[in-house]
Automatic annotation (TrEMBL):
<feature type="transmembrane region" description="Helical">
    <location>
        <begin position="160"/>
        <end position="179"/>
    </location>
</feature>
<feature type="transmembrane region" description="Helical">
    <location>
        <begin position="254"/>
        <end position="277"/>
    </location>
</feature>
<feature type="transmembrane region" description="Helical">
    <location>
        <begin position="212"/>
        <end position="234"/>
    </location>
</feature>
<keyword id="KW-0472">Membrane</keyword>
<dbReference type="InterPro" id="IPR000515">
    <property type="entry name" value="MetI-like"/>
</dbReference>
<keyword id="KW-0813">Transport</keyword>
<protein>
    <submittedName>
        <fullName>ABC transporter permease</fullName>
    </submittedName>
</protein>
<feature type="transmembrane region" description="Helical">
    <location>
        <begin position="131"/>
        <end position="154"/>
    </location>
</feature>
<keyword id="KW-1003">Cell membrane</keyword>
<feature type="transmembrane region" description="Helical">
    <location>
        <begin position="101"/>
        <end position="119"/>
    </location>
</feature>
<dbReference type="GO" id="GO:0055085">
    <property type="term" value="P:transmembrane transport"/>
</dbReference>
<feature type="transmembrane region" description="Helical">
    <location>
        <begin position="37"/>
        <end position="55"/>
    </location>
</feature>
<feature type="domain" description="ABC transmembrane type-1">
    <location>
        <begin position="94"/>
        <end position="274"/>
    </location>
</feature>
<dbReference type="InterPro" id="IPR035906">
    <property type="entry name" value="MetI-like_sf"/>
</dbReference>
<keyword id="KW-0812">Transmembrane</keyword>
<dbReference type="Pfam" id="PF00528">
    <property type="entry name" value="BPD_transp_1"/>
</dbReference>
<dbReference type="GO" id="GO:0005886">
    <property type="term" value="C:plasma membrane"/>
</dbReference>
């Protein structure tokens, strides 16, 4: 709708007889120009923040002991990558955290989707379990880390359990709401045409809920990373959370920022991959065009 409105507004600026192809080309050019401007300001803000951080540290406007500096953070990352950390190879610690987060992410996402769709389609069961789900969801998930570590130990299972819990409720809530928001007219029409409950769920309800589900998946991987790192921070032998904990104990600000930067990069890469997958699986959706102003 926004794209059509933009084209109509652009068409009014052209002289009579301008072809549709010329109008479309002008609209696409304006969109590309806007995207370039957005990218420029994104990079400019990042460069400004990093530059001011470095300058403030070098000029002693901030205490580099507590705030470090971008050059100090990059130096620490280089040392970790080439010489390793006090807890072994940087890449091994990163892999430990990623393994915990990925297992928790996939297990929590799949379970959340199935439970959300199942309860969303069965009002009787949702009424029964809603009070328990609300009660468990009211618990701050990070406080479960000591309990999981006490029960499952310092290894992989306790971190996966925390990542699972962090992801499950986000995906479940969106899948459940997506099912409830499905178009009732389309469901009624499908039933009139003789569709069974499974056919209605597969062809109408699930496609309708996909936008909700993908929206939750975009943020849930970050929650999986949080779950894994918090678990490692509470108690672990390896992992990025353990590196942060050691850096905190030794007042190594550069080490803490280096670990945080590493997590940010990994999470952004995962977000990009998720966007690519969503675009491939949801080609049926109309593209969203933003106003150029």
């Amino acid at each position: 709708m926004a794209h059509t409105t933009f084209e109509a507004g652009s068409a009014a600026l052209f002289r009579p007889g301008t072809s549709d192809a010329e109008i479309e080309a002008s609209a696409l050019k304006a969109i590309r120009r806007r995207n370039t401007l957005v990218r420029f300001w994104q990079i400019a803000i990042l460069v400004f923040v990093i530059g001011m951080w470095e300058l403030s540290s070098n000029m002693q406007w901030i205490d580099p002991f507590f705030y470090s500096s971008p050059s100090g953070v990059l130096q620490r990352l280089y040392e970790w990558a080439t010489e390793g950390t006090t807890e072994g190879s940087l890449w091994y610690n990163l892999w430990v955290t990623m393994e915990e987060a990925l297992i928790g992410f996939f297990a929590g996402s799949i379970t959340g989707v199935f439970v959300g769709i199942g309860l969303g389609r069965n009002r009787f069961l949702s009424d029964i379990f809603s009070v328990y789900i609300k009660a468990i969801n009211s618990i701050p998930r990070v406080v479960l880390a000591p309990i999981f570590i006490m029960i499952m130990g310092l290894g992989l299972p306790s971190k996966v359990a925390l990542a699972f819990i962090m992801v499950f409720f986000v995906v479940f809530a969106n899948a459940f709401q997506g099912v409830r928001e499905a178009d009732r007219n389309m469901i009624a029409n499908a039933r009139i045409l003789g569709a069974s409950d499974w056919q209605v769920t597969r062809t109408v309800v699930i496609p309708s809920a996909m936008s909700w589900i993908f929206a939750s998946l975009h943020v849930s991987f970050g929650f999986a990373i949080i779950g894994a790192i918090v678990g490692e921070f509470v108690g672990a032998r390896f992992g990025i959370g353990q590196l942060i904990s050691i850096a905190k104990g030794t007042f190594d600000a550069a080490g803490m920022f280096a670990a945080i930067l590493l997590v940010m990069v990994v999470t952004l890469v995962a977000e990009f991959i998720m966007t690519v997958i969503e675009n491939r699986l949801a080609k049926w959706r109309p593209q969203q065009h933003m106003d150029t102003q």
